[in-house]
Amino acid sequence: MLPEIKGLNEECGVFGVWGHPQSASITYYGLHSLQHRGQEGAGIVTTDGDVLRGLKGEGLVTEVFKQHDMSELKGHASIGHVRYATAGGGGYENVQPLLFHSQTGSLAIAHNGNLVNANALKHQLEGQGSIFQSTSDTEVVAHLIKRSGYSTFSDRVKNALTMLKGAYALLLLTETEMMVALDPNGLRPLSLGTIGDAYVVTSETCAFDVVGAEYLRDVQPGELVIINEEGIRSERFSYGAKRAMCSMEYIYFSRPDSDIQGVNIHTARKNLGKQLARVVDIEADVVTGVPDSSISAAIGFAEEAGIPYELGLIKNRYVGRTFIQPTKSLREQGVKMKLSPVRGVVEGKRVIMVDDSIVRGTTSKRIVTMLKEAGATEVHVCISSPPIKDPCFYGIDTSTHEELIASKHSVEEIREMIGADSLTFLSVEDMVTAIGRTDQGEHRGQCVACFTGQYPTELYPDTVLPHEKELTR
Amino acid sequence: MLPEIKGLNEECGVFGVWGHPQSASITYYGLHSLQHRGQEGAGIVTTDGDVLRGLKGEGLVTEVFKQHDMSELKGHASIGHVRYATAGGGGYENVQPLLFHSQTGSLAIAHNGNLVNANALKHQLEGQGSIFQSTSDTEVVAHLIKRSGYSTFSDRVKNALTMLKGAYALLLLTETEMMVALDPNGLRPLSLGTIGDAYVVTSETCAFDVVGAEYLRDVQPGELVIINEEGIRSERFSYGAKRAMCSMEYIYFSRPDSDIQGVNIHTARKNLGKQLARVVDIEADVVTGVPDSSISAAIGFAEEAGIPYELGLIKNRYVGRTFIQPTKSLREQGVKMKLSPVRGVVEGKRVIMVDDSIVRGTTSKRIVTMLKEAGATEVHVCISSPPIKDPCFYGIDTSTHEELIASKHSVEEIREMIGADSLTFLSVEDMVTAIGRTDQGEHRGQCVACFTGQYPTELYPDTVLPHEKELTR
Amino acid sequence: MLPEIKGLNEECGVFGVWGHPQSASITYYGLHSLQHRGQEGAGIVTTDGDVLRGLKGEGLVTEVFKQHDMSELKGHASIGHVRYATAGGGGYENVQPLLFHSQTGSLAIAHNGNLVNANALKHQLEGQGSIFQSTSDTEVVAHLIKRSGYSTFSDRVKNALTMLKGAYALLLLTETEMMVALDPNGLRPLSLGTIGDAYVVTSETCAFDVVGAEYLRDVQPGELVIINEEGIRSERFSYGAKRAMCSMEYIYFSRPDSDIQGVNIHTARKNLGKQLARVVDIEADVVTGVPDSSISAAIGFAEEAGIPYELGLIKNRYVGRTFIQPTKSLREQGVKMKLSPVRGVVEGKRVIMVDDSIVRGTTSKRIVTMLKEAGATEVHVCISSPPIKDPCFYGIDTSTHEELIASKHSVEEIREMIGADSLTFLSVEDMVTAIGRTDQGEHRGQCVACFTGQYPTELYPDTVLPHEKELTR
Amino acid sequence: MLPEIKGLNEECGVFGVWGHPQSASITYYGLHSLQHRGQEGAGIVTTDGDVLRGLKGEGLVTEVFKQHDMSELKGHASIGHVRYATAGGGGYENVQPLLFHSQTGSLAIAHNGNLVNANALKHQLEGQGSIFQSTSDTEVVAHLIKRSGYSTFSDRVKNALTMLKGAYALLLLTETEMMVALDPNGLRPLSLGTIGDAYVVTSETCAFDVVGAEYLRDVQPGELVIINEEGIRSERFSYGAKRAMCSMEYIYFSRPDSDIQGVNIHTARKNLGKQLARVVDIEADVVTGVPDSSISAAIGFAEEAGIPYELGLIKNRYVGRTFIQPTKSLREQGVKMKLSPVRGVVEGKRVIMVDDSIVRGTTSKRIVTMLKEAGATEVHVCISSPPIKDPCFYGIDTSTHEELIASKHSVEEIREMIGADSLTFLSVEDMVTAIGRTDQGEHRGQCVACFTGQYPTELYPDTVLPHEKELTR
């Protein structure tokens, strides 16, 4: 039986620079390009060799950092973090990088991923006297490093990493070193690059293009990269690791201009759409995608099927945290929020609506209804991924078993529930093939746990499930 | 010879509701869907039959209005405005609706467009004792209404309107009436709709979909619509008017889900792209569009040409007013701002880059350079409109003669300046045909002044030209 | 019969500098020292000889102006204004200086005082075509200047001033001149000073000490001072004027370190307290004052009576606009707001409580109750001014006839209503004598209208009465 | 030899309520009345029996808490804290109450005082694996409680308290209990009161008057008060404690309407002033005090000496964090900041200037100069306390040995340095006698360490000295 669902997760983005005189500015632009990975909070910690200076806050990168802040974030090395919006929890305490002070030196940590044994570790640590000020599982990592008996910092870090289970792409910064670590399954993307002599590390390669960096290589599962004034070196803290890269990074989470392990995201999505067109045999007038993440797949579908691609749905760009949600009575009168149908495009048409995934089914139902109200005569829903049947414990905010519509219902039942004229998913194998990775492992080294329930790591009775977020699909 | 260039223009959006108990909330969502027409300021004025209440401010709709403000904006009728960002001028005083108090009643005005005789009228009015607190040409309208000798308010308004030359879509609100007026050339879009018994008016029909309204009809050139508790009535203040709808509303300014005079914007743009594909004869590997406004044209081009459409360029969604611009030294190191090339898509490819227009040429040059640096072997620039040779005096912020690259240079010269392997524009006639309006007038009732220099209205030596804005293309 | 009560008044402070390279900074510190005269809004307009630049906003001086704003307010001359908090009205539009643009030049106006014929003038001006954007009577002045037929600016100003009735200390700034005008009764204080070669003008002399200026002289009733690059000159726009300086400036409004026409405010108040001690014959243990304005009078009383002065009441310094007012239920449980009694000082004591005035009586009643609850055995209320029986139309926010407790009730009735053991006021003559001005006019040139109903100017049926403010006493 | 000087101190205020349905609101008003004890930050943590909810932030109480926050701070018990402004350190992390989460329950701590063995304890705790996120010594207390081996929470707290050396008035809140502890020397004030059935605790009794509470008793040195649903009980964690109440709380820190151990602060100060008058034999025309803290002493001096008390110096009330400090060039031109002399009062006069203390001498020198420039013929400085010769390690921000002018210089030398015509201090014994406590201990139970160097607790080589703050006197 799967673990009880509780807690808080962190689907986020990390970025770091070592060896650049404007490291904080570079990190600002890097984080800015990773903003889609987290809008709740952002932070940067820098070192000038002597002192760690940090600034963090709730909100977008552009809200947290002002011009004059940048000049105070002095130093040749920086790490940064953008944090995913969670429903209720959070607050300033949980914004990263976390910064810890000690009489022998300071430590900053930025973490993307989710630890499945965080609660177990917390129980252990509290038994030994640790106290916690955030609800983030990242704080556990700092405690484990602190408590390790090893004498060198890198040994203490490696010792701590062996205690962690789950997904983690970690950046650590001390006065004199930056460390980069990836979990033994390599569940989250993490890449190294260079700007001249400086090293850069990022959750997604799109940040390299934005800051003018060159891609060097991906960080390997179970690898600890240590960068200091003597240069860069690589160590292993885990052997026999098997890559299990999150499929959802390809399907909907990452930015289309990023490459993950050599595969461009836009291209992968377009291929998913093409594959979908091959398995669907429906006559239709237009293909449309759900913005933004499904546009590439929809274009691929249209191209393969020879049906015109049209903008049948439009997203309002200006919906932010301060947007006033329409009241129930206004929604019932037809006031839309983020997404509107384009009547001129769908009226009187048979519409193929391509989306990347179905989670709870509520969004799909709303869009189908919207398109039909706008005059579509048929709406065929084509999903560029397999049905999501199981929750993710590694940092992607899907949902609980209870709420995952595909966990309890057949495809035909879902079709009826969302009011579509037809509903098609990709199979796991078609999805893996379309993405087109060259990895030799099972499922070409992709994690497909949320489609199959086969988790690449152990789970525990108190494993923390990504908290339910506002995003319902 | 054309008038000297100076002053301030107002490409903006207007929205109004009459007869709805939550008129301010409806207006909030309406303005929100018109946000692309102006991000500098926003305002709403309501009437409850006795008192006009206003709230306005600098910034986005979601920044200006907070939850608790809505409850204070009581009343069954509201007008609202979103204001275009201008370079230096502006400030709170220029944010609309403007609100004027008098011992016989109050008046609020919201204006989209640009008056070509504003300075002439100001000189006249100042000679008669008027004083001005804003630099907006809208203030002139209030003075003209006030000074009119007619006894009824609607006669005074009509009398004032006859004095105006240029482009104006106007909403007026008093304690007991809402008035809607469009200039005799109908240069700007303005449409009427209904929500049950309530009337709605908007610059673009996309707002109707968002607030659940039904489209009724477009406001006619030279028409004054008067709505009060006795119902709605239409009057004419100008006869013999000829429609000259701004071509740029179709080409790049309006939202793709809006219809202007029966033509859907996305469809028009896709058709412009298709037409472009017909006149271009180039072998290429991929078609890409410059986000956001050129995506529809690029898809049309790709569809017609049978060349795959790809996301070769990506726009960062989170660039707002508080974004810290990279310093020159960082830009030289390759730090990007709003737009990034997608290396995985363009590397080693012959790229057709579709854009909607070229103004100064600087943006085109930057994008071509960016694509080539990202590995494109050829970059063919295809523009879904004719060369812009003349400034607009009606509210679209293109630029001055000096700065309009097509005003001084041939197509071949421009191609060389922007570094493209080829450069193609649409002809005026192809553009008009592709958009596909059914109007019987010259150029099917489109204003093509910025392409041909043939202005639909008189101009004056002191006509105010749209101030130069940050947007350079 | 007195005019109907309606409208908005402006008890405020003005400050100006001509001929100093850091005129805006000097004005900032000047306004800061006048902050007690108005906390609702603040503004500064500067000229560098070519352009008027303005910045204004709602809130305190320190809230409106930030460090980087100061560098933008360039120029050798500035005028500034602090605005009194009004209950409901107001908003940004009413914050001064008001700034008017015209094709022949700009004009900024800052005004302290209240016009008694503002409504009459507005009716006239609206009849001639003027429109108004604020509810401030100051806007009238700009219209009158604009409409004057005279050819020179100073003649137009003088012509406009002859139209005004009531109280006004006015600063005007154009690109090339600063003008200073005082109403023919000199109802409000206004003084000239110098900093080296620069001229400074202020509502209160305390600002001279703060900015390091030397006092030169007071502006005379009916005087227009004109300062430009040719120097300073004085003109008269009214002859036969009689000084009627507001008594309340001495009694409670001005800062104790200011001098008005040669009389120091603290000294005047202390003398009012001494005089009060001479007419009161009560045995008591302690004298206490109501902070802040009555402390000087209380000390004078204690000194003269030989009774110890004690801090029987204390004011919380941190009550600002964002203070959350206690709910009714909390107030009933005893939660205090601004003022607390000092139990250790008043318990078991016979207390003489000196206050500067009684307006509605509600504050006096609250304080007497508070002192008794804190253990005072007797509370004798001694007021260092005569009973206020009539409203002020010149800018001091007292109240309406209805609400002025002394307008309807005898001293004995008031004593009973506020629960005091005795109640003493000063007579008008004692008050005038104690203040000790050397003016030869009636009441030594003081306005005593609020005590006697003898107004120094005409009044009109639609004279605007100072709006009722939060301050109830 | 005394410890090296480094670190951060916390002169602050604490307030708590147990058993009131609006505990957070009560705490808001309580903290508001303690605002003079700390303006850098404020926070409240509440419990409703199940969950601790906290809100804290940098700034004033009125800035940190908004109306809608209050409704979210649900619960029958609350603790709150206001934090003293420190020069450089600080930030959100150091704002209290600190809140710690654990799987067995949460804990909030608010602390007024300064631990002299904080660094020693940190070294110990870090050796055992603790990590720290703030630079506040308060975090140490939470770690000690966590690590205690005792089984009940109150035993763990008492165990932790025995490890602390120095000054602490502590409030602790868990889901089900509030605890109140005072160090064995009782160096800081802490009092218990009641509102009906609810218990209230505060740093100063002025808060009781503001929230309508009744004073019950002072918390005793070495006492731990435990309040929960079973009622209130008192325990001792230290025996043989001797009260050593901080003298500076009487002399300048506390609010005049507070009583500390039965002595009213205003009365104490007035008596200090009277005693000073008895030992000074100088002919003078006026007595003036330095606002705000020296006014009571100055009035006492004037009363005893029979010399008129006058407002010779005035403080600008509106100087806050956002005040723009005048540049050096403006200061040299005479622009004043917080304090101005009242020329009308001091010109041509022999002035006795009463101040509460001299720390560095810079402020005294500035005031003497200011008074002389304003025309005072003689300035005699009378200080209502003994010379401060030694730094405070218990939370009062005086300064380091280096900077304490009386540490290195004789009274005559100081007189010359500050430019006074005479300079008088009180002796320690006169000071103790004037304050008039009835305690039987040495110096009547007052701590006089800063005057004599005789510290009531042990000190350590790494004892943290209160960081130097902006306040120089």
Please give the structural blueprint.
The structure is a homotetramer of 473-residue chains.
Chain A: E1 13-18, H1 23-33, E2 41-47, E3 52-58, H2 61-64, H3 67-72, E4 77-83, E5 98-100, E6 107-115, H4 118-127, H5 138-147, H6 153-161, E7 166-173, E8 177-182, E9 191-195, E10 198-202, H7 206-211, E11 214-218, E12 223-228, E13 231-236, E14 245-246, H8 247-253, E15 259-260, E16 263-264, H9 265-279, E17 286-289, H10 295-305, E18 313-315, H11 328-332, E19 339-341, H12 343-346, E20 350-355, H13 362-373, E21 378-383, H14 405-408, H15 411-418, E22 422-424, H16 428-435, E23 446-447, H17 449-452
Parallel strand pairs in A: 14-23, 17-20, 20-21, 21-22
Antiparallel strand pairs in A: 1-4, 1-10, 2-3, 2-4, 5-6, 6-7, 7-8, 8-12, 9-10, 9-11, 12-13, 15-16, 18-19
Helix pairs in contact in A: 5-6, 8-9, 9-10, 9-16
